[in-house]
Amino acid sequence: MATTTEMVKQLRELTGAGVLDCKKTLDATAGDMEKAQEILKEKGLAQAAKKAERVAAEGRIEAYIHAGAKLGVLLEVNCETDFVARTDEFQTLCHELAMQVAAANPRWVSFETIPAEVIETERNTWREELIADKKPEAMFERIMEGKLKKFCQENCLLDQAFIRDEDKTVRQVVTETIARTGENIVVKRFARFAIE
Asked: CA-CA distance, 8 to 18, in Å (whole number)?
């Protein structure tokens, strides 16, 4: 099947990939739109991983005030250039991340930002629970790793289920945006304020 400009345009709108990448992928998949989307998605995620080492010194401070003005969030998200920082896609990501912080109330950005003493305290608590429950000591590490993963999913912004799509984590949403914008994006910090 010959690749038409309409097919390239449609795939570009669906994936955000470049025109040449869309054409080459459609040619390689004989016009199979779904297969082409999957290939471009995988390629984009691989490229996003490569971009993680690049410096993200530009960005945006997003402010979100929930209806009723009793809950607010300030969030810093960095990218590589002010051009991307001004795009609708980046601004939408920042807004949705601020809403995520308001709704899910994470304590930290990621596992790496949790203070070591907090992790140590939690691990000691879990160990005491396992001893009290008379679990076999050989299983302690595996059980505690599962508990740590759950702890991160509840308390780390990037590990939480995304409020707009529970099948994805916030980290996956950020990675997909990196793949589409072609720049590294880093969620730097946030503050959540609430009148109790």
From this structure: 9
pLDDT number for residue 149: 93
Same domain, 33 and 121: no
Interval 60-116: pLDDT, tens: 999 999 999 999 999 999 999 999 999 999 999 999 999 999 999 999 999 999 999
Residues recorded for the chain: 196
* Helix/strand/coil (H/E/C) assignment for every residue in the chain: CCCCHHHHHHHHHHHCCCHHHHHHHHHHCCCCHHHHHHHHHHHHHHHHHHHCCCCCCEEEEEEEECCCCCEEEEEEEEECCHHHHCCHHHHHHHHHHHHHHHHHCCCECCHHHCCHHHHHHHHHHHHHHHHHCCCCHHHHHHHHHHHHHHHHHHHEHHHCEECCEEEEEHHHHHHHHHHHHCCCCEEEEEEEEECC
CA dist 133 and 129 (Å) reads 6
Mean of pLDDT values over 41-45 = 65
The CATH number for 82's domain is: 3.30.479.20
